[in-house]
Amino acid sequence: MTAFPAVSMAARRRRASLRLCATVFLLDVAFCKGFVEDLDESFKDNRKDDIWLVDFYAPWCGHCKKLEPVWNEVGLEMKSIGSPVKVGKMDATSYSSMASEFGVRGYPTIKLLKGDLAYNYRGPRTKDDIIEFAHRVSGALIRPLPSQQMFEHVQKRHRVFFVYVGGESPLKEKYIDAASELIVYTYFFSASEEVVPEYVTLKEMPAVLVFKDETYFVYDEYEDGDLSSWISRERFQNYLTVDGFLLYELGDTGKLVAIAVIDEKNTSVEHTRLKSIIKEVARDYRDQFHRDLQFGHMDGNDYINTLLMDELNIPTVVVLNTSNQQYFLLDRQIQSAEDMVQFIHSILDGTVQAQGGDSIWQRLKRIVFDAKSTIVSIFKSSPLMGCFLFGLPLGVISIMCYGIYTADTDGGYIEERYEVPRSEVEGQDPKEESKEPLEPRSQDALAPPHQEPKDVLEKKTD
Ligand SMILES: *[C@@H]1O[C@H](CO)[C@@H](O)[C@H](O)[C@H]1NC(C)=O
Ligand SMILES: *[C@@H]1O[C@H](CO)[C@@H](O)[C@H](O)[C@H]1NC(C)=O
């Protein structure tokens, strides 16, 4: 009884000082940096008992500078909500050997370090997203749902989440393994059969379920294969607002992605109708298509044009095959949901001709396309420079060099980006020094993917 007021006093005082900080923040940013610890060599020995959220930055990197104010706010908020997660930053160029031990390959890299595990953050660099990630990954791997009320609460809070139903079993062990790798993306719970909503019918126990899109799906080992890959496929909602980053992530699913490419600012019926057709198909034909397809819309055609090396007139519908980089287009407008369903069926039964792909021919086309865009952008930004460069024989040589250079870096790039996750996913030893499920990025860890759309569909290339 006596301790209680004392605690709340302390909390109130802390809150007051934080409020003060938030006010002062505008005047003196330096004051609030106090909530983010500047880390040095001693970090390696001192960190063990705590959970740390660390920004590995380079002083010269522009994206790091952009992250800095966000990071200070993250530090401030984690402190004010009393989170056990400590927030720090490390100049990865000054402590490069330590940074590379943690598996830092680009700047900025955000990692949550928990014991021997290092989890990479790959989402948007906003305060709320980063904090949500820290809560999710720092908390229990599998969160028990002891009551129906808790279950309902979780259903309201999370658009997609996984639940294990049942007691101890080999399936549960697989579930825990999968969760330790995929907690960076989604939530994992466990519950007893009584707690699961009544509308759920389970033929077998134990079971793993995903709740999303106002319904649920049950994992079936025979039909769905490996549990981790099923979770990777099912961790997205059925209908999404697609951007370059998300499209890149969807590459993990290996599914077809049907996208209405529209101009969101254009309120004409052509644009809005196409979006609602895709939404309708996603909802009404879910049982038929959810294993093979993701649905969504994308605002504007710049990104998709670069990706497909094509000039799409919007509005239009494009279906991408994320496992082989092919895509499908219709030469006429989709008029109705039935029309769209027919289009999907003809893709699935192979009667529509696929375009694109990852053949040698496509790679050559990519080199030419990139060279062409480079030349166009040089002329656009500086016509004089363009004339000088390309008016001379030297220009010819530089184009050739550019072609060779692009071809080279392309290959190296893919290897660098994708070798790492594979070996790590295979060697699922939880005691690994640095565990980085599916970390694909070199360079600027989350450089806007629009800069390299070609990589989205090239990720399955081997
Ligand atoms: C909206 O889209 C229609 C159909 O594509 C097009 O004709 C029209 O010019 C667009 N309007 C604006 C404001 O961009
Ligand atoms: C998508 O690509 C995969 C891998 O090449 C292929 O097996 C599958 O048939 C393709 N899907 C369609 C609908 O073309």
Automatic annotation (TrEMBL):
GO CC terms, sorted: cell surface; endoplasmic reticulum membrane
InterPro entries per the UniProt record, alphabetical: PDI_TMX3, Thioredoxin-like_sf, Thioredoxin_CS, Thioredoxin_domain
Membrane topology: Single-pass membrane protein
Name the UniProt record assigns to this protein: Protein disulfide-isomerase TMX3
UniProt function note: Probable disulfide isomerase, which participates in the folding of proteins containing disulfide bonds. May act as a dithiol oxidase. Acts as a regulator of endoplasmic reticulum-mitochondria contact sites via its ability to regulate redox signals.
UniProt record similarity statement: Belongs to the protein disulfide isomerase family.
Subcellular location, record wording: Endoplasmic reticulum membrane
Keywords: Disulfide bond, Endoplasmic reticulum, Glycoprotein, Isomerase, Membrane, Redox-active center, Signal, Transmembrane, Transmembrane helix
Gene behind the chain: TMX3
Pfam families registered for this protein in UniProt: Thioredoxin, Thioredoxin_6
Gene Ontology MF terms in the entry: protein disulfide isomerase activity
Stretch forming the signal peptide: 1-34
TM region positions: 383-405
Keyword rRNA processing among record annotations: no
Region ranges (Disordered): 417-462
Catalytic activity, as annotated: Catalyzes the rearrangement of -S-S- bonds in proteins
Keyword Hydrolase on entry: no
Chief subcellular location: endoplasmic reticulum
PANTHER family the UniProt entry points to: PROTEIN DISULFIDE-ISOMERASE TMX3 (PTHR46426:SF1)
Ranges for domain Thioredoxin: 16-139
